[in-house]
Amino acid sequence: MQAADCLQEAIAGRIVRKEDIPLPVKPRRGQHGIEVALYLAPKLALYLAMRGRGMSNSELARRLKTSETVVRRMLDPHHDTKPEKLQTALEALGKRILIAVDDAA
Question: What does the pLDDT average to over 10-29?
Fold first, then answer.
């Protein structure tokens, strides 16, 4: 549980500081991966999609016909953003949210 909390905060900090986020690596034998928390995953996806396109907050705000403040809040890891807003923003970047449920074992 501590590793998961640490990962979430490390990702959140990099988003806030507008830093690169390393790609995940495949766990080696005997290692287990750590999943990104459900609250953070769509914000991370939006952040990565915007960086991949070199898109600014103001450009996304124009596309969404909203204010830059709204986009900043969508990217803020500690702001409670409605999933529908994140979904709309991701769709504006040609992305979609998929949710899967797997066996825990």
Answer: 93
Burial status of residue 96 (CB atoms within 10 A of its CB: 0-12, 13-18, 19 or more): exposed
CA distance 28 to 35: 16
Residue 49 in any domain: the answer is yes
pLDDT at 35: 87
Distance CA 88, CA 15 (A): 20
Residue 43 located in a structural domain: yes
User: Can you give the CATH number for the domain in which 10 is found?
Assistant: 1.10.260
Tally of domains in the chain: 1
Q: Sorting pLDDT into bands at 50, 70 and 90, what band is 102?
A: confident
Euclidean distance between CA atoms 78 and 39, whole angstroms:
9
pLDDT in tens, 63-82: 999 999 999 999 999 999 99
Q: Is residue 44 part of a domain?
A: yes
